[in-house]
Amino acid sequence: MGSVIRSVVYAGLLTIGLATIIFAHAILVKSTPAPNQVVTGTNVSVALTFNSRVDQARSTLSLESQDHTTSRLKVDVDPSSPAELITRIPKAGAGSYKLLWQVLSVDGHITRGEIPFQVK
């Protein structure tokens, strides 16, 4: 009987531990532009939505152009949308780009990623 109880306790602790690991990071669930999307126009709207709140003031968005130069984009802080990062890319010329993002979730974990897209 003691080994059964011990097994149940261990299984419960393992489940709690895995749930903490799984839900500890902000995960990108939607982006505009979408990965590999072709957008038109020179003023590109950017919106990234995560599965949890992120620290907008400490999160970063950068744009890498096809010649590999990188420029930092200003994140529009919006307390009413704590799971989103929003910005605009003004005067984007035709070509291939990567949107580089780094977010700090409210629990202190950093998540990074990139979204390739093209402007026509």
How would you classify the helix and strand content by structural class?
Answer: alpha+beta
Report the total helices.
1
**Overall radius of gyration:** 19 Å
For the residues shown, what is the average pLDDT? 87
**CATH architecture annotation:** Sandwich
Write a brief caption for the model.
With 120 residues, this protein is an alpha+beta fold. It has one helix at 2-22; strands at residues 28-32, 37-39, 44-50, 60-65, 70-73, 84-89, 95-104, 110-119. It has a single domain, classed as Immunoglobulin-like (Sandwich).
Structure notes:
The protein is of the alpha+beta class and about 120 residues long. It has one domain (about 25-120): Immunoglobulin-like, CATH 2.60.40.1220. It is about 20% helix and about 40% strand. The chain has one helix at about 1-20; strands spanning about 30, 35-40, 45-50, 60-65, 70-75, 85-90, 95-105, 110-120. The strands form two sheets. A five-stranded mixed sheet has the order 2-8-7-4-5, with no helix packed on it. It has a three-stranded antiparallel sheet with strand order 1-3-6, with no helix packed on it. It starts with a helix and ends with a strand.
